[in-house]
Amino acid sequence: MKSLFLTLFLTLLLTLSSFASDSSLDLEVKILEKIISEIFINKEKIIWSDNKELCTAIRKKELIKTTPECKKATIMVLKDIKNLSKECANSVIFVLDYELLSKVPKSFGAFFWKKGRPNVVILKSRLNSLSIQASNDLDPYLEDKVW
Description:
Radius of gyration: 18 Å
Number of domains: 1
Distance between the termini: 55 Å
Strand content: 15-25%
Low-confidence stretches: 2-20
Number of helices: 4
Order of helices and strands: HEEHEEEHEEHEE
Largest sheet: 7 strands, mixed
Number of strands: 9
CATH architecture: 3-Layer(aba) Sandwich
Strand order of the largest sheet: 3-2-4-5-6-7-9
Helix content: 25-40%
Shape: globular
């Protein structure tokens, strides 16, 4: 009886944890879609990401175009600096780690989790230097410099 209860409990726990991870991915996708829809880069917005799970989720929603090749992207969503190839380093870049904002000078903003909460930081100076315009909806996330 105890083993049956333990098995059911573990199954329930694993099921709930899989739902929790799915919901965080869904939230990431919604936030990124909002940010990308609220910036203007004078080109068609085509996303490439080294986070394949995220790219797949964006592609499934069909609101923003994605590409499997970074060369064809107009906006890169970067999770790991090791995945930034030289041929794509001049693209507009949005990072998924706050520390990358300092390490990747072509990045204009970051989305990251801190204390279990989503955070967005967009740098005004980099928007200007990259000729990106942001709508007023992004004003609460604009910062003058990296903290």
